[in-house]
Amino acid sequence: MHKALTATAAIALMCASATGQAYEQGDWILRVGAATVSPDTNSDDINLPGGLVAKADVDSDTQLGLIPAYMVTDQFAIEVLAATPFQHNIEAKGQGAISGTNLDAGSTKHLPPTVSVQWYPRSGQTGWQPYIGAGLNYTVFFDEDVDNQLIGLLGSLTGGAVNGADLSLDDSWGLALQAGVDVPINDHWAFNVGVWYIDLDTTAEITAKANGATAAKVKFDVDLDPWVYNIGIAYKF
């Protein structure tokens, strides 16, 4: 992903207009592109029946990013990071006696709306428009699901007592930092490359079921702290 960002930025710089647009107070900018959430996962131990221990790992996903920004002054803007729902697969990685044993644990969807204040050092000037920003993220999880592989493992560890499970993830508030650049094509259109780092922590709870009744609960904290990348286009209104 880092290589893709670098290559896209280089192509944009080669193809872009030497003059292009200037950003000024009152302008609206809409960025649309491929937004990728890449978690840097670090979880507490997941203590399974029989004294077995695992840790959670979460994969990346790419969705449509829709990112409006409003220039409050020539140099400062308010931006909202929005996207279609991201879906992530969750893997349980065995530790200790079961190190190297990994299985599909579940999946979840989430939306990570992020509001940031941005600084544009070259606003009011034509040409490329770099920016940096800081803001607040709220991530809401939904459609959590436990994979049959984990349900099967729980069942085998309890002699068949567990035949179902539920997963819940707490919503998260956290700080976000970002940087990006718009490289103009003409007075309205530009190439965009952007990156965010989001402080995203959640508490997961797996509730094991035995014939519909609660048999056991496992609760653990997970630091996701994802990098979010957007590659696309920008349009200035």
Fold and architecture overview:
It is a single chain. This protein is mostly beta strands. Helix content is 10%, strand content 61%. The protein has two helices and 16 strands. An eight-stranded antiparallel beta barrel has the order 1-5-6-9-10-12-13-16. Strands 2-15-14-11 form a four-stranded antiparallel beta sheet, covered by helices on one side. The mean pLDDT is 89.
Describe how the helices and strands are arranged:
Elements: H1 2-15, E1 28-38, E2 42-43, E3 46-47, E4 53-58, E5 61-71, E6 76-83, E7 86-95, E8 102-111, E9 114-119, E10 129-146, H2 148-157, E11 164-169, E12 172-184, E13 189-198, E14 201-210, E15 213-223, E16 227-236
Short description:
The protein is mainly beta and 237 residues long.
